[in-house]
């Protein structure tokens, strides 16, 4: 009987140790902090969260209650492509700027909070930058403005 008890105790100890190790590894791999970059559009400085993976891009700014005046989210696409954005579960108005492979602004779309309308790039793009509503207009940024980071 004590042999069985000893084996069960050892098995439980090993299981707990590996379970804890597995949990730590999962946290290190899957709960990465949000990357942020300092960008410039012409002379305007922007602090942008970065969305690279499909999961990050799908979530976007959903649930974000507020952004600072020069804060946004930069979507980076591995290959240039036509992109459509929407505002499901985003509680604040946003503008999205679409940028081609050279970082040139090709279009800005205004997006209203909590809507399911799609806002598409007019051509294939490499980057999309979501900013607080009215941000591009307030700075008079038009087609041809240059994204740098």
Which key features would you list for this structure?
149 residues; 3 helices; globular; alpha+beta; seven-stranded mixed beta sheet; Jelly Rolls
What does this molecule look like?
The chain is of the alpha+beta class and 149 residues long. It folds into two domains: 31 residues; 113 residues, Protein of unknown function DUF192 (Jelly Rolls). It has three helices and nine strands; from the N terminus they run αββαββββββαβ. The strands form two sheets. A seven-stranded mixed beta sheet has the order 6-5-8-3-2-1-9. Strands 4-7 form a two-stranded antiparallel sheet. The radius of gyration is 22 Å and the shape is globular. About 20% of the residues have low confidence. It comes from Parasutterella secunda. Pfam families: DUF192. This is DUF192 domain-containing protein.
**CATH class wording of the largest domain:** Mainly Beta
Overall residue-averaged pLDDT value: 84
- Report the order of strands and helices: HEEHEEEEEEHE
Q: Given the C-alpha coordinates, what overall shape results? A: globular
Question: Quaternary status of these chains?
Answer: single chain
Largest sheet: 7 strands, mixed
Number of helices: 3
CATH architectural label of the largest domain: Sandwich
State the strand order across the main sheet: 6-5-8-3-2-1-9
Strand content: 25-35%
Helix content: 25-40%
Structural class computed from helices and strand pairing = alpha+beta
CATH superfamily of the largest domain: Protein of unknown function DUF192
Number of strands: 9
Distance between the termini: 68 Å
CATH domain fold name of the largest domain: Jelly Rolls
What ranges have pLDDT less than 50 throughout 5 or more consecutive residues? Answer: 4-33
- Our count of domains comes out at 2
Radius of gyration: 22 Å
